[in-house]
């Protein structure tokens, strides 16, 4: 099975053939994968080199001319380094673009802390008007990408090497209700689903699956709490607590508790492998089960 990033390259290359409005802007990352598309569409596959502020600025400029830009590099270089350009060249100019990241929170630990971006979604969440997709499987990534390029709005598609065992029919809107229970609600975001399903096996809980986290699907969460306890656990593959405020707002008129589980703020300086980071941040199934059962009081 291919990775989300490989599927992004193959899907976007086909979309360039299909849609003359589309352009891809790169900063060296994935340039080799897009080489055939660049030869076929030299005016619509633009590699600016390792210049991430320019990367976003070019995307914003293209958008102002009516082009639909797909802007791509590692998450730390797409959201964090050029954040001012994301805020001004896209948001302030009311220009639409599709930002597609690779690398997730710590997909390439050998690259060091410069290549880790657990705070990317929280950072974008400070800006208005962004749709944020967090697919958990290459098939879902393709579905969400195809939806994103058809619009004119600002979309962030967060790709990772971490992925679930199988794809689900995601819609780009509401959370999917995978099972119902009475002792609480667990929201699994993107590639955390397989670990969450293993963690809650045999527990009387509702499981929601989220691949579009902004806008936050308050309606589905409220319906879930009508059938279950209003205690909510959100398991996210990025910074702990990124969506707890959104869940609190959704349930603001109801007695409830929210626990956010995700990547901690403490920097891990022994980089190891991705699996080591998952365990260190208690995102492995055994740790998730311990934290979920402890919070919800279920066994």
UniProtKB/TrEMBL annotation:
Residues 2-163 form the Transketolase-like pyrimidine-binding domain. Gene3D superfamilies: 3.40.50.920, 3.40.50.970. SMART domains: Transket_pyr. It comes from the Bacteria. SUPFAM superfamilies: Thiamin diphosphate-binding fold (THDP-binding), TK C-terminal domain-like. It holds the Pfam family Transket_pyr. This is Transketolase. It comes from Streptomyces yaizuensis. The lineage of its organism: Bacteria, Bacillati, Actinomycetota, Actinomycetes, Kitasatosporales.
């Amino acid at each position: 099975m291919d990775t989300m990033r490989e599927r992004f390259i193959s899907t976007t290359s086909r979309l360039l053939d299909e849609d003359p409005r589309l352009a891809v802007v790169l900063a060296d990352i994935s340039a080799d994968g897009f080489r055939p598309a660049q030869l076929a569409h030299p005016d619509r596959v633009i590699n600016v080199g390792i210049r991430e502020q320019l990367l976003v600025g070019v995307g914003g400029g293209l958008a102002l001319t009516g082009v639909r830009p797909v802007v791509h590099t590692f998450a730390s270089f797409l959201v964090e380094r050029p954040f001012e350009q994301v805020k001004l060249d896209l948001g302030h100019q009311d220009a639409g673009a599709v930002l597609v990241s690779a690398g997730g929170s710590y997909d390439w630990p050998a690259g060091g802390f410069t290549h880790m971006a657990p705070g990317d979604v929280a950072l974008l969440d400070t800006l208005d008007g962004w749709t944020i997709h967090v697919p958990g499987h290459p098939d879902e990534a393709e579905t969400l990408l195809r939806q994103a390029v058809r619009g004119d709005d600002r979309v962030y598609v967060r790709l990772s090497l971490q992925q679930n065992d199988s794809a689900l029919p995601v819609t780009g809107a509401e959370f999917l209700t995978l099972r119902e229970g009475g002792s609480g609600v667990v929201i699994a975001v993107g590639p955390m689903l397989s670990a969450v399903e293993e963690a809650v096996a045999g527990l009387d809980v509702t499981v929601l699956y989220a691949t579009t986290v902004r806008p936050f699907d308050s309606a589905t969460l409220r319906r879930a709490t009508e059938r279950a306890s209003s205690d909510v656990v959100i398991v996210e593959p990025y910074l702990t607590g990124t969506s707890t405020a959104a869940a609190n707002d959704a349930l603001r008129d109801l007695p409830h508790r929210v626990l956010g589980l995700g990547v901690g703020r403490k920097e891990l300086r022994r980089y190891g492998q991705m699996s080591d980071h998952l365990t260190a941040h208690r995102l492995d199934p055994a740790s998730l089960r311990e934290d979920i059962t402890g919070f919800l009081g279920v066994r």
